[in-house]
Design goal:
By secondary structure, the protein is of the alpha/beta class. It contains seven helices and five strands; from the N terminus they run ααβαββααββαα.
Length: 204
């Protein structure tokens, strides 16, 4: 019964979008969810199928912690089946958010320096399992390199969101949190909200 209700909500959402047609949503969903930044091959969607608990490590700057709380609240308004929260217990977390320098993060993620050369201001990695399930993620905001607080907030929102199963960035929509160019967007666009709903609120 719950699955039927969820499906009806998604269909109602798609049918009720006045400014974005359904084909645009489906195409953007396919681009962001089924493709990655560093691959041209399509992949199955993956998502968390249990509650997400975020643990913050590194330099816990007040305005970034507040921004994370805002992001979590907005995601919980969009996503129905699971709950997202911030935890102070690293042992119960399944999404690590690290705020610090590239050097500091490379001590936590040994593959980071080897796989992500160049001018990287943020980073996200998803650990997937069977049945399209994400069992853990790591997100990184380079506050050593990025000094602009608004830009830091953008990167935080982008990387945390991508760690939920939204792999890709594109140049299609500059108001999207998944915009590949330089951006200081700190709000989800209506199109962003729709593809988040499609991944999490639809019946698999």
């Amino acid at each position: 019964m719950k699955n039927l209700i969820t499906l009806l909500i998604v269909l109602t959402s798609l049918n009720g979008v006045s400014q974005i047609d359904s084909l645009t949503i489906i195409n953007y969903y396919d681009t962001i969810v089924h493709y990655g930044e560093f691959t041209s091959s399509a992949r199955p969607h993956k998502k968390f199928k249990k509650d997400v608990k975020i643990f913050v490590k590194g330099e816990k700057i007040d305005y970034l912690v507040e921004e994370l709380e805002k992001v979590v609240s907005e995601l919980n308004d969009i996503i129905i089946p699971i709950n997202i929260s911030i935890t102070t217990n690293n042992d119960e977390s399944n999404l690590l958010l690290f705020l610090g320098t590239r050097k500091e993060f490379s001590k936590i993620n040994m593959e980071f320096e080897e796989t992500r050369k160049g001018n990287i201001e943020g980073f996200g990695v998803i650990y997937g399992g069977r049945h399209n399930n994400i069992y853990g993620s790591e997100a990184f905001v380079d506050i050593g390199r990025v000094k602009n607080p608004i830009r830091q907030k953008h990167i935080l929102r982008e990387e945390v969101t991508q760690c939920l199963g939204f792999y890709n960035d594109t140049y299609q929509y500059d108001n999207s949190i998944f915009y590949e160019g330089y951006s200081t967007v700190t709000e989800y666009s209506e199109l962003d909200k729709e593809i988040i709903k499609m991944l999490y609120n639809k019946v698999d």
